Protein 1
Amino acid sequence: MTKNFLRLFVFIFVNTINHAYSQNENEFFHEIVLEKDLIENEKWALVGEANFKYLYNEPGWRRWGVSFIGVRKIKRFSLSAGANAYYTFNKSITNFFEIRPWMALQFNIPIVSEITLRQRLKYEWRFFYTEGDDATRENYRRLRYQIGFDIPIPIKEESSWKIRPFFEWFFIRDPTTFERFPNERDYGLMVIKRLKNDDELSITYRVEDFYKVDAEEPVNGHIFLLAYYF
């Protein structure tokens, strides 16, 4: 059953990408994430993360980032807060730094047959600092709500495979003037494999609907994300 599901996932993914690539209103990204549990016990967790994101379309850019996350576990709830730091750069764009402190509340609800409903409400502050002779500083706040499901494949307690379909909405008034791809909503599917040493490897395909700033800009982004958690 697991092999059949993976074949189906690859088939749908390849056909979706092929269709999207033929359209002019799409951008393509890949992202790599490494996440490390620095501290973890029954009540608390501290996580460090490094990531790299690349835009293929022209004018393209690259982005390096680091994040630190603190989590307080309270039964089915978790309270978390953290800060992300990013540097986005390329010769053809205005290079900029972003500092993103945030806080979030997550609620996990077991439904049936090991399937869990996940909900997360997240509030972010985004501070942007551009480089160059005309350096600028801009900032805004946004609220995010995500809903998704954790579904073991096959549906049994000891499964080492899990899929996570999800949807997320972004509530924002006005993005910064130079931010090319502010999100309005996104949705996707994550496939997670728990390894024998309890580390996790995941592959995610995510579609982003962009907040419309410029009528000539693409309206959708397609992200292929590879992550390793240890």
Protein 2
Amino acid sequence: MQGFSPSPPSAVLQAGLRWSVQRAPASVLSGDRPRRCTTSLQVWRLSIGGGGLCGDAIVPAPPQGSLRLGSSSRWTCACIASVGSAVGSNGGDGEQPKQRRGRPKSEAPAYDAQQLLHSLGLKGSPAELRRSMSKINGIRQQGVLQHAAAVVAHLRGLGLEQQLLEQLFMRCLELFSWPPEERAEALFSQLMSSGLTAAEAARCFEACPEAARYLSFAGSTAVVDGILSHSQDSNRGPKPKVPAAQRTAAAMLRADPSSVQLLQVDGTKLRRKTDGLLVLGCSPKAVAKLLWILPSLFWKADSVAQPEQAADVLHNELGLAPEAVFELVASKAPGWLTNSQDTLRRRAAALTEEFGRDEAASIVVRDVMVLNCDARVWQHNLHYMAACSVGDARAVLLKTPRLLYLNHAALDFVARRLLLQRYTGLSAAQLYQQHAHHITQIQLKQLALRLQYVEHRQSSLDDKKQQARGVAWPWPLRLLTYNLQHKTSSPGFLATLGSSQQEWDAFVAAHPAGSGPVWEWAQQEAGAEVQRLVGVLPLELQQAAADVRPLYKSRRAFAPEL
């Protein structure tokens, strides 16, 4: 049988089929979705002047002055014929078209990107706009053409600045594809009612464009505020940037706009996840801290399963009680929860093998960051410390667990140690055994700058006073590595030298950090020392050293308060 080819419109008309010519009504032209034809008859897709038919849906041509390209005619023409009649003209059985399941695919409208930006009063790259538009479906693209002007006007009315508005438009086009009252007005109102400014709310959508697909954040915001109301500050460690009493959903979004993903979780589901953590043994305080530090855990499906599985692993390997593990979950660095069970088990087992089960458990409880560390990192460090004549390196690491996961052969770590040795007269072994905490306590640039200031101050002393001191820094190391100014428990760096803040500021202005003779000496000496340390590793560890990623490279050292 010859292949079937559809008859032209004239042939179809001769078969007695009916034509319909309609003018698209205004209600259709202004609507988001095209009207759908409910007949089961096959549709001949014919259009005049840019109008068209999409599946069984009649899409009217745009009005005069539309941003869509093509003729401005508002007439559409459709020919409707039965499948049987069309096939009958050929005298054979026609191949039935495949029925597409689900929602018909929407066609992307044509538009002029430069004209669209100009009409909205926005500056930007037309090419970037086209890329952004290509990421959303045709219906939403049509929505942008219809509703963007109203959304832009609404956001301007909220006080959004031009630059941020332009960034938001390029980053989150979906927000502009609905009428303002359906998305932008409601969502911005809810975020601003929680305590955010319009600019802070805009940054949430810029950080997470998917948030524009949700109708409301109100329920989730109330649940998050309720969870965070149980926050409590710790008496240990540095003061938090946001005190517990000020922690709310708005404060969380202000600190991390991408955490708006948390508000996309249904409030009922958030309560269920919180209840699950409480049943496992987490206190309300611990849950609040975990939500504040690691909100991503709560928008994952396995938010309850992860800490439960971690508790099982650490109980089996280290003998830790579940309650102790859940307190670790809410510690300063719960990122270790993202590790697989096998990774946690392997790292805990390595600590147990090296230090003993009780000692390994003590290390984890005091500094859970060791669970983020590959065992090869601290195995390398044992060799580096031995090369520095440290008699009992295990005892040093057990006393100061932070030293476990830092790379002792990193250039900055070595340079800081060499500077402390030079200006205090202590050996590397003495620093490790007596002052291990201070080796990691201050950034290298700040340490070099302070020691250069020490030399500057000593240059004004006579020879007898310099000889009486013996070394450049005879005072306790905490006065060098901690605060500049006087604190309750410490006179501070400047007071120790008898200097004022004005003198220090003038010196810093003339000697930028990361420059000067002290800095240059540290860099030169550290390079040679790193080569010496790496050379003491056994051959198999040297080959594996390139694959190890210690936390020191990606973690900023403690920055002293200036």
Protein 3
Amino acid sequence: MTEPRDLPDGAGAAHRPPGVPRPRAARGTRMSRTDRRRQLLDVARDLFASEGFHHVSMDDIADRAEVSKPVLYRHFPSKLDLYLAVVDAQGADLLAAVERAVAPIEAGPVVRGAGRDVVAAIVQAYLAFVQVAGESSTLLFESDVTHDAQVRTRVQHATAETTRRIAEVLAQVTGRGPADADVLAAALVATAQGAATYWLRHRPESDTGRVVDLVSDLAWRGVAGLVRPDFVYEDA
């Protein structure tokens, strides 16, 4: 069966990374409903990330996507519905990045000494996510709409799903029970997310590989593992 299509009012684009220009299509070109939805999500994501939820209207989104408002409302009944869909998509992208990172490690038995590799893979997953998502990662990490119960629930769900997956892996590595693994995963998520957000904001001279090494050492060995050999602590 042929997928239903929307008649575009202008250019369209399939799912693309933030900041990548949408290729223009000739007027009158049909788009599938799936492609149209992806286009609208891409446009809304970029606008929400750059302008903030409260400064973007459905008119702005329709204009940027070059569609009529009826087409936009056909896919998303309200701006909040559209924002929630964007948050869900960002959460799915982050979880996919983590899955890709841990898959090679889980392919075989986790052996002693692989623990730091797991930590590094997870930190790398967060950095890879912000490298692709850019400013739109803030819609998941630093949403300006979390006062809304629905948005807060979606953001918390996305974080919980990622944390749960990481806890499963850490439980294998550490041999800890579920409760301990959950705490360790939450701490690692906070550390990895903080490092990724810092990198996005400041773009330090250190390349991402160096950032992964530093954060992985901190998370795996603790601060004590980073103290200089000649450091002397004097209790006042």
